[in-house]
Amino acid sequence: MWQPPAMGSPVTHFPLEDLPTEEVDRQEAVYTGLADAVRSLLEATLTASPSALAASLPAVSAVTAALRVAQTDGPLGVRHNGRGRTWSWGNAVIGPRNATAPPLEVVRPAAGGPVTASVVLGPAHQDQPGVLHPGAAVKLLDHLMGVVAADGRRLTMTGTLRITHHRPTPLGAVSLAGWITGEEGSKVLVHAELADASGVVTVEAEGIFVVPRWAR
Amino acid sequence: MWQPPAMGSPVTHFPLEDLPTEEVDRQEAVYTGLADAVRSLLEATLTASPSALAASLPAVSAVTAALRVAQTDGPLGVRHNGRGRTWSWGNAVIGPRNATAPPLEVVRPAAGGPVTASVVLGPAHQDQPGVLHPGAAVKLLDHLMGVVAADGRRLTMTGTLRITHHRPTPLGAVSLAGWITGEEGSKVLVHAELADASGVVTVEAEGIFVVPRWAR
User: What angle do CA B149, B154, B158 make, to 5 degrees?
Assistant: First the structure.
């Protein structure tokens, strides 16, 4: 049974791990392969007919048992190798090793302009059939806005968000964009939007992100 | 490759399915068993050591292939049997068949009082190690608030949400509660909060939910 760990010092959340970038890339590819396979499996379970279930349950449990034999402490959280490569494999939104994450790939432009992401969302992210769960849309926006606020140079935390749902978002390809609209002391103001496959903005968000006192 | 379905008429989202309640319960137990096994598997993949991965990938893919042989159209979305039993097996927040959903079990009290839910959230829902992703917290709140607004008697959609994050939420047991604070024409005002295992409220939300024109 999984037990929640004690909440560590914030400083432990961005540790240095002395791995060459090529080795980080290699490990990430291996881990992502298995997580992608689990993503496909969980999508298949959504609509599997009862006749196929009986044989599958012991097979799934056997794989889990085999994986449980050789477990590590992670790495979870954000790591960096001091050479410009960061990774966050377990994260619920961007973690390639986390099969509940789409995962979102957030792109920070080198020379200003909006931070963006695009991803194809399947039935695991649904509310009504064919429709993205509105809470799932906000989960993605919250994460993107955190990246916008941090701006690659500071640690920020979500303070308040104001979300406006204009219309339901069809499942399938969606895109996100966000940018800083202002800064006031330790507060960073961020605007972000999520658009459907035809580019129609379905959800908008205004956020106030805060640089925590211990990180100033 | 999964393709997004065309967005159907809203009326198709709450269809009647003529199944005895006992049969719904029986099918749900079967489906939930497999989804729970996939939940355990995806948690094990989060921290599996590289040595265990190589053998697991073909096994996971084989199960997926077996499930793909016998697929159904769902049932996704909300169904009801006309006898007081509703089910929403594929939903991204409450769907027991959806391994990305915790799943949240929302409890509507028979005689007034807050709508509540409690759930244990493991590392699949993490941001930093041991900390619930703030977007994942909002995803759960959004869903609970929709149940509050609908009040078991009408169809509502999320309009706007205002979220205040007071502090990080440790992973583990969390509880949610929500209630209606006002109604203005087709708008329903809802307050909700999410508390950690010690009962400390970590996230608060104010929402305006709307009864769509076609459902009035």
Answer: 45
Could you count the other beta carbons within 10 Å of the beta carbon of residue B173?
14
Which stretch, A25-29, A79-83, B77-81, B211-215, has highest mean pLDDT? A25-29
Taking contacts as CB-CB distances below 8 angstroms, the residues of chain A near B87 are none
Structural domain count of chain A? 2
Query: By CA distance, what is B39's nearest residue in A?
Result: A42
pLDDT at B122 over 80: yes
* CATH number of domain containing A154: 3.10.129.10
B9 lies in which domain range? 1-103
* ipTM rounded to 2 decimals: 0.89
Same domain for A112 and A200, yes or no, is yes
Mapped onto helix, strand or coil, the DSSP state of residue A97 is coil
Does the beta carbon of B92 lie under 8 angstroms from any beta carbon of chain A?
yes
Q: Are residues A77 and A129 in the same domain?
A: no
Q: Do the beta carbons of residue A202 and residue A165 sit within 8 Å?
A: yes
Residue A192 backbone phi and psi in degrees, to 5: -150, 155
- Rounded to whole angstroms, how far apart are CA atoms A159 and A163? 13
Query: Are the C-beta atoms of A93 and A103 separated by less than 8 Å?
Result: yes
Q: Are residues B9 and B98 in the same domain?
A: yes
A127 in contact with chain B, both atoms CB, cutoff 8 A = yes
